[in-house]
């Protein structure tokens, strides 16, 4: 039996781990990663904490990026997949 969530977690072009960062550096690191990517590419972000969990997807969406998935893991981290906005 296949696990869709497990398959999705591997569908990304770039990945960053910002679990040790605090706001506002969490979004700064996410934004820098997105800026280096081509439009349409997917960024996997591993993060920790309520503030980044709420702010990063919201701010990314406000900037035109698409939130593909957000999954809270048992260890307290969140796995977020973003698609960079077109052009």
Summarize the structure.
Helices cover 34% and strands 29% of the residues. It has 87 residues and is of the alpha+beta class.
Please, could you describe this protein's structure?
Strands 1-2-4-3 form a four-stranded mixed sheet, covered by helices on one side. The protein is an alpha+beta fold. It has three helices and four strands; from the N terminus they run αβαβαββ. It has helices at 4-9, 25-35, 50-62; strands at residues 14-17, 42-48, 66-72, 77-83.
Features:
87 residues, 4 strands, 34% helix, disordered N terminus
Helix and strand arrangement:
Layout: H1 4-9, E1 14-17, H2 25-35, E2 42-48, H3 50-62, E3 66-72, E4 77-83
């Amino acid at each position: 039996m296949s696990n869709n969530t497990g398959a999705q977690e591997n569908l990304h072009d770039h990945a960053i781990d910002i679990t040790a960062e605090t706001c506002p550096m969490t979004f700064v690191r996410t934004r820098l990663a997105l800026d280096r990517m081509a439009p349409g590419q997917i960024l996997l972000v591993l993060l920790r904490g309520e503030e980044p969990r709420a702010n990063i997807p919201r701010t990314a969406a406000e900037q035109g990026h698409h939130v593909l998935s957000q999954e809270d893991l048992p260890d307290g981290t969140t796995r977020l997949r973003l698609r960079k906005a077109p052009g």
